[in-house]
Design brief:
Chains A, B: It holds the Pfam family Aminotran_5. Chains A, B: Its EC number is 2.6.1.44, 2.6.1.51. Chains A, B: Its cofactor is pyridoxal 5'-phosphate. Two copies of one chain form a homodimer. Chain A contains twelve helices and 13 strands. By secondary structure, chain A is an alpha/beta fold. Chain A folds into two domains: about 110 residues, Aspartate Aminotransferase, domain 1 (Alpha-Beta Complex), CATH 3.90.1150; about 220 residues, Type I PLP-dependent aspartate aminotransferase-like (Major domain) (Aspartate Aminotransferase, domain 2, 3-Layer(aba) Sandwich). In chain A, the strands form three sheets. The first copy, chain A, has a seven-stranded mixed beta sheet, with helices on both faces. Chain A starts with 9 loop residues before the first strand and ends with a helix. Chains A and B meet through helix 1, helix 2, helix 3, helix 4 and helix 9 of A and helix 1, helix 2, helix 3, helix 4 and helix 9 of B.
């Protein structure tokens, strides 16, 4: 067994995206204790940075010490109690995973389905809310990573509140890449990832909970099944001002990386980052369409940072992706679930979202397709 | 908000321990995709390296993508079903956490208690096994990080099998630092951490499951409550030979670090690492005893890598630790739970276990104590 030296790739898949060298450097700084006063100061800054990019004043805004899937589970495990009715919108893989979370926790999932590639239908959700007055939660994916479709989180959250539901929102792929306003849109519980539009390494998951959501957590009838994800305990470590008490050992170096990525995002400005993702999407779109390649998602609902496009007729999916990887060190994403073998997912997230990468991708793709 | 540059500490607490510069460098290598063929090859090597240091041929040997507490939860969440009787040994904080896992999962915990600082009593465990023939699992901590006591895992596991129980063993602090033989000792499910005797960064948790344990997982009556930790799903990504299917996004850079730490451990030789931890413990012990400082755990049951010593009469705990940290950049650990304010925990784990650190610690402690 020898030291591992990875190839240097350009990551244009659905995540991880390219990690900026500044963030890689930050990860390699000397590890210190997870209760060191210097570390605790960095934790406070990290919370403030996350509040700024989530656009929230929620006190409970912090990174969960595990990947986005665990961020999802943190929201459901803390908010869903056995027999709770939860309306869950499925328009791709991650809505399905939400449903899986609900049923494993003993909740009852009321499913609102939309075709993969479409946004969540506001009308269908309103009907489900009307039909299920005892429902307590509405859960949906803001940015469906399996298709690249974006849903109208603002409208869905306001609607949920009219029917006395709190909301759980998946923003793994949207945070930092497309408009997202937790407080203004009245999102109650939200989770994201670090390896998408924040250009940091995978492994931790920023979350934010409103007071309304926290109240539901505090008033639970049954304890949270997961000790590791129980926010009542986690907050003893991440809570502000309070004496920090040991819960689990935080992933110190990964948090260095997240901190640096937040510094960079605030230097750029969150709105500027959204605009950069949009304008680079347009460049890529124009190039792809000029090659006769079509998008899965209609323009209105399309995420600029994740471009799902149909694989042209007669083209060998695996072979093209292998050519890009082997000849150009370029990774693009395969389709997931219903779209496996039918679409490619081309990510333009975070540090990956740069003109030079678009030029590389278009040129390499032309070559691989023999155009 | 500015880039964070941590102070350079010597970490002689209960973990994280000092991360070797080779491992820090490995963490900063370029991120690649978690389904990249190059990454998949590294995953296979990581599994083999873990098998070598766990001393097991268990096919299910892999790192969980979250800290040691989540490794613990992976074992309990997969093996405990509602109403299962589980005998759990409590001789410190982590035995208590095991019990908490069991009850949250709907299991019934039968507690075998020993004084903090003592090893788990084999006689008491045998009595509990006799008294509870319907018990299915015996759970105990091999190396209790809250006290530095080591229990006789070999004897306890063989005993459990005589009574048809499978075993769950906490080896967070023992792996790589003290004798541990998963197959020879017949351990069924074991979890550890990377930030102790492996000298890697915190954030992931190596586990290993025997065939006997896997059979119990596969024959569950109810699904695992946690989607994220369900081994039936995780194995689709980490399973050998099989086509790797996406489950969650692996913490790529943290796994680079673990891989490098395994390369280093195998270069040194696991048995040599055990011997180094023992001989350095003896050096530190002699120095501390010469200062009139006494150990919490008797010599026979003492972990060489974690030295719990009584704070001398009249000494201000917090002030001494602050002096060490501020004047010497040296971190030692506070007492936990029942021993908060009464003991210090001085770690000599992994890369921290070096003569120069012992010299520093003894000298700085003399100064801080005014000796």
């Amino acid at each position: 067994m020898k030291s591992f030296n990875p190839p240097v790739r350009t990551l244009m898949g659905p995540g991880p995206s390219d990690v900026h060298p500044r963030i890689l450097s930050a990860m390699a700084r000397p590890t210190i204790g997870h209760l060191d006063p210097a570390f605790v100061g960095m934790m406070d800054e990290t919370k403030e940075g996350l509040q700024a990019i989530f656009k929230t004043e929620n006190e409970l805004t912090m990174p969960v010490s595990a990947p986005g899937s665990a961020g999802m589970e943190t929201c459901f495990a803390n908010l869903v109690e056995p027999n709770d009715k939860v309306i869950v919108c499925i328009n791709g893989v991650f809505g399905m995973r939400m449903k899986e979370n609900i049923t494993r926790l003993g909740g009852e999932a009321i499913v609102v389905e939309d075709d993969w590639g479409n946004a969540v239908s506001v009308d269908k959700v309103e009907q489900a809310l009307k039909d299920n007055p005892e429902a307590k939660i509405l859960a949906f994916v803001h940015a469906e990573t399996s298709t690249g479709a974006q849903s109208d989180a603002k409208t869905l959250c306001k609607l949920a509140h009219q029917y006395d539901c709190i909301t759980i929102v998946d923003a793994v792929t949207s945070l930092g890449g497309t408009e997202l306003r937790v407080d203004e849109w009245e999102i109650d519980a939200i989770y994201s990832g670090t390896q998408k539009c924040l250009s940091a390494m995978p492994g931790i998951s920023p979350i934010s909970f409103s007071e309304r959501a926290l109240t539901k957590v505090k008033n639970r009838q049954s304890p949270v099944t997961s000790w590791f994800l129980d926010l009542n305990l986690v907050m003893g470590y991440w809570g502000k001002g309070a004496k920090r008490t040991y819960h689990h050992t935080a992933p110190v170096n990964t948090l260095y990386g997240l901190h640096e990525s937040l510094v960079m995002m605030l230097e750029e400005g969150v709105e500027n980052s959204w605009a950069r993702h949009q304008s680079n999407h347009e460049l890529l779109r124009d190039g792809l369409e000029a090659m006769g390649i079509n998008f899965l998602v209609n323009e209105k609902d399309r995420l600029p940072q994740l471009n799902s496009v149909f694989i042209p007729e007669g083209v060998d999916d695996a072979q093209v992706r292998a050519t890009l990887l082997n000849d150009y060190n370029l990774e693009i994403g395969a389709g997931l679930g219903a779209y496996a073998g039918k679409v490619w997912r081309i990510g333009l997230m975070g540090y990956t979202s740069r003109k030079e990468n678009i030029a590389l991708c278009l040129s390499a793709l032309k070559d691989a397709l023999g155009k």
